[in-house]
Specification:
single chain; alpha+beta; 8 strands
């Protein structure tokens, strides 16, 4: 996968300020490995790292799949999982995170498509995702990818200090069967950011 982003050049040799130069990034999507944890500190705190370790163990048992998006130099810039345990018919996309410096470049779209592919291979007919009520950018992305709201629920997870974070999330679903609305739009491989 290649992503094209526009980046303002620096230095007088690049001409007037504001000039935009496209930069191509070579990316790969692959399974999470134990050696990746040192490069995922941007994705969350100690509690999140523990949840990732548990997810990796569940992945070894075939209960879920955890994927990362890596730059050509191996640095990780996105991660996500699809959990097959809650509903064998609907893979639950979870732990979705894109490094803040690489957001709005199409990586989330590619990651969701790769997770949906894992869900299809596991026999899931639908894909489900939850998004916090105060995250409209993510909700808009999922709707663009063909997800429709099917309800809401209260969710919680551990945070620092032995406390729990509690939030209301919207539940969205998408049909993964052949002939259903497709994932990323054509041309999403090369996304320009300005």
């Amino acid at each position: 996968m290649t992503v094209t982003l526009a980046r303002p050049p620096t230095g007088p040799e690049h001409g007037p300020p504001g000039r935009v130069v496209p930069v191509k990034l070579r990316l790969s999507v692959r399974d999470l490995e134990p050696t990746d944890f040192g490069d995922l500190d941007w994705s969350g705190g100690a509690e999140h790292q523990r949840a990732l370790a548990a997810a990796l163990q569940a992945a070894y048992a075939g209960e879920l799949a955890v994927l990362v998006v890596a730059l050509a130099n191996g640095r990780l810039v996105a991660l996500g999982a699809v959990d097959f345990r809650p509903d064998p018919d609907a893979g639950l996309l979870t732990m979705l995170s894109v490094h803040e410096r690489f957001q709005s470049l199409g990586l989330g779209t590619r990651l969701v498509a790769a997770l949906e592919k894992k869900a299809r291979r596991a026999g899931c007919r639908r894909s489900r995702i939850t998004v916090e009520h105060d995250n409209p950018r993510a909700a808009a992305l999922y709707r663009r990818l063909g997800y429709a709201e099917v309800g809401s629920r209260v969710e919680s997870w551990p945070v620092a200090g032995g406390r729990r974070y509690v939030t209301v999330s919207t539940v969205l679903e998408r049909d993964l069967r052949p002939g259903a609305a497709a994932g990323p739009p054509p041309g999403a491989d090369d996304v320009a950011a300005h």
